Amino acid sequence: MRLLLAEDNVALADELCALLRGAGYVVDWRADGRDVAELGAVEPYDLCVLDLGLPGVSGLQILRKWREQHNRLPVLVLTARGSWTERVEGLRAGADDYLPKPFHHDELLLRIQALLRRSHGAQPSAVLSVVGLELDEQAQRVSRNGESFELSASEFRLLRYFMLHPGQVLSKSRLADHLYDYEAERDSNVLEVLVNHLRRKLGREVIETRRGQGYVLRGAA
Ligand code: CA
User: Fold this and answer.
1) Which residues of the chain have pLDDT under 70?
2) By the 8 A CB rule, do 39 and 71 touch?
């Protein structure tokens, strides 16, 4: 899952980048509203964490413009403490959720998780449970038939993306779009290696290869 973080407070942005990356998200951070507006319009993000008070173009203007352009990117707005007007304006402009500053790290992570699940039609439960696999996003572990497996950070990122898109053909370029940030080198061999790691843990049949098209998460029988 690839997130766009729009926050002009550098100390807070540093903290949030570390938090989000630790939780297995790929993050592009921008502080200027103009950069945020442009990136969010062209890059295939899974979610945007949007501070409303940004230099250049305000968060509200960005959000209104995206919605006018029918950009359905899930947006979690960060608002000033106690400002009910910001919350109302944010929701009116098309925000999916909001969080007043200051907030607890866990609350941000849980709201992001809930919003991502909701936008993919998955259940808002503690564990993401799809096609016979159960993913514990906090512990970054997966279980199948009661057996639990450790995941490396990159295996976790890939499996979470698969589990939010079960049964769909996912091309390597699409996977790369959602698993690497803007600056990253994209190497499709790395993806193949990761898919094989997951198969070794969970069973070969769990991820099907479609020649020339990509991969499909089939899950456990
Ligand atoms: Ca700000």
Assistant:
1) 220-221
2) no
